[in-house]
Amino acid sequence: MKIAFLIGSDLTSHLIVNDLLPELLARGHEVLLNYTANRPNSQAPAALRRLYTIERALLAEHVYPHVTPDPSRSNSPAGIAQLYAPQVTVRQVANVNAPAFVAFLAAHQVGLTVSVRCYQKFGRPLIEVLRSHGVFANLHPGFLPAYRGVLTFSRALAAGDRDAGFTLHHVDERWDAGPIIAIGGRPLDHAASVLENMCRQRAVAATLVLAAVDDLAAGNALESVPQEEDQARYFTHPTAAELAEMGNRGVELFRVRPIVDLIAREFGEHLRTRLIDVLDRELEHAR
User: Fold this and answer.
1) Domain covering 2-285: architecture
2) Quick one: which of 50, 58, 202, 261 has the fewest CB in 10 Å?
């Protein structure tokens, strides 16, 4: 079966994809990895700009240029392409709704497409093409329908929730509103940051996708249930005031040392000193 991913530029989504890849290849599937990017919002509160630096810019600018392909650890998109072609195709996609890209996916007749924190709004032509050949699903960080939107783990931590997790759901033209295929989660660590909690759920997220892959490969339809609209809440990026209140409740968006430790474990210990030096400079600049 052909499986496509529309992948955001953040650490969590890249770790999830790295975890999924060996499992999918061992099952004999062909994988299309389509990496997307989004620009930082210069008007966002300083805390969100710092989060963008450590969650997104760090990988592209200061990790991936300094790692070599290694099948025993996580890899950059370029490393994945070098290690696993032709079973894996890697593309950088500026606009997922571009007619040429929609035509590319249509030609491949993908059986399952999964969006993993791709922040681009999906247009009707893309949705229709992917639905016509298979299933188009979104791997959403947060329990739906109560936690639609962005940075939902920060809201769950601020609310004192015991658990958080990921929801795999069908894509429609409304944000995070399609029928639910599966939900998985684990207890939140309220002593850890938002980003740490998200990264720790990577195995939960990967398990949801693999279960869907196995069902489809066996010829089964994916069962799903509509979301209960009366339970739905949609969260935008937190304002400066909301971020301050989260801080008062002990919620941190990230902590530098645990994330440096994670990246060094995943991509190579040689990165550790470089990352600490870079973050000292970059985070001060983002204030």
Assistant:
1) 3-Layer(aba) Sandwich (3.40)
2) 261
